[in-house]
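Narrative of activities, Objective 1.

The group set out to show that a structural description can be obtained from nothing but a protein's sequence at a throughput compatible with the screening campaign. Below is one input-output pair from the validation batch, recorded exactly as produced.
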Amino acid sequence: AAHHHGRNELKCVQVLFTMLLSEVLELLLPLAYLVCFLVAFYGPNRNVLGNVGADRWHFAKVDAADLGKVVASILLFASIDALSLAISAIWLWRTRAINLW
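Output recorded for this entry:
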């Protein structure tokens, strides 16, 4: 019975780690995308990059006037992911006394 309990505990730790990793990546990836987008937007190849400065084929370029909206949208997305991470961490702490930090 002790062996089964240890295996069950290991499975719980693996699931918890997977959830934490997913939540953190959901926060970091939009921020990494934003950094890459801004580098592309202000970089020398802006005019040939689709969805940045080129509107050839099916792409729509982002004008300087629209940049604020794009940045705000990405930051809103990242903020929602940060809120999800915080809610998960608080819930785990209050219900299971699991500290994610």
